Each structure stands twice: as C-alpha cells, then as structure tokens.
Amino acid sequence: VLVSGHLDSWDVGQGAMDDGGGAFISWEALSLIKDLGLRPKRTLRLVLWTGEEQGGIGAKQYYQLHKENISNFDIVMESDEGTFKPSGLGFTGSAKAREIVKEIMTLLQPVNATDVYDNADGTDIDFWMRAGVPGASLHSDISKYFWFHHSQGDTMTVQDPNQMNLCAAVWTVVSYVIADMEEMLPR
C-alpha cells in the first residue's frame, strides 16, 4: 500500500499546502500506525514525490524502477489538493474494489469523511492507475485552495492542525485497513 504526497515548492511560496500537506499526512499516517503498535499483513510504503510540476518526472522514474513488481501494489494513494476538512476519497478501480473501499470509509463516520467519489486524481499515481492498480486521492474542502495555490501565501500558516489531523485520520484508516485485509483489492 503506497501513501504519498509531493514536495511542490517550485515557484513562489513555501508549498506548505500544495503539497506539503499531502506529504505531512502521509508521513503521519505511517507514524500513527507504528505508534499504535499495529503491524498490517502487507507493507505500507511512503513516497514523497519530486518533480510533479516539471512533468511528473519523479513519479515516472519511480514507476520505471518498480513496475516489475506491479502485482505487489495493492493501492496507490496521493494527496494533492490541500489538507483542508476531508470529505472522503476519489477512487479508481474495479467495481468490487469500490465496494470494499466504500465499506472501509464507513469507519470514518465519526469524522464525517465517508464519501467515495468517481476517479482518483494524482499526477504521481497516474502511471500505476493506468496499469490497473487501484488508486485513491484525498478529497477535502477546496473552497480556499486556490487562494493559496502557487502563491506567496502558501505558507504553514494556511495549515489548520485540526483539519490536517482529520486528513491524517482518513489516510491512516484507509491505508492500514487495506494493508491488513486477507486479500488484495480486486483488480
């Protein structure tokens, strides 16, 4: 199970929201799983992408290096639309896999982040999804996203720790449950 975000500070600003937030919650998901002493049946892998704005060159290189093991990738997850209040996941995969993801998302009712939207979105996971690996992308309230996107205002002050914690909770639950299932998601 691959969880990811990318480091995107390539023009102005610090890239804290786009997409440092995705990198932060991906790191935090694995950290929480470890701190809780949980050991899923399958490997969880964190990838902090580079070069997304330069044509996805980091993702392309990673895919080239690891595509021979594609059957070992259960799901690829990317957060690249800020880490504001989460509502659920975008998902790309088979109908059977979608039903399993919908069931997993019911675990997130206490934080009201249960929606499963059509199609995962993420430049860095696109190679994998086109090759048939299920993909997920975080959906959060993007009403303020373009206030800060690629601007000098994209600093750590944009990040709300409570909303980031909710995003990390979504990432943690989904990645852990999928990694701990008896079988991989159906393709």
From TrEMBL:
Cited Gene3D superfamilies: Zn peptidases
Biological processes annotated in GO: peptide catabolic process; proteolysis; thyroid hormone generation
Recorded coiled-coil stretches: none
UniProt domain Peptidase M28: residue ranges: 1-171
Main location: endoplasmic reticulum
Cellular compartment(s): Endoplasmic reticulum; Golgi apparatus; Lysosome; Secreted
Keywords: Carboxypeptidase, Endoplasmic reticulum, Glycoprotein, Golgi apparatus, Hydrolase, Lysosome, Metal-binding, Metalloprotease, Protease, Secreted, Signal, Zinc, Zymogen
A Pfam family that the UniProt record links to this protein: Peptidase_M28
Protein family: Belongs to the peptidase M28 family.
Full protein name: Carboxypeptidase Q
Organism for this UniProt entry: Tyrannus savana
Lineage, top ranks: Eukaryota, Metazoa, Chordata, Craniata, Vertebrata
Gene: Cpq
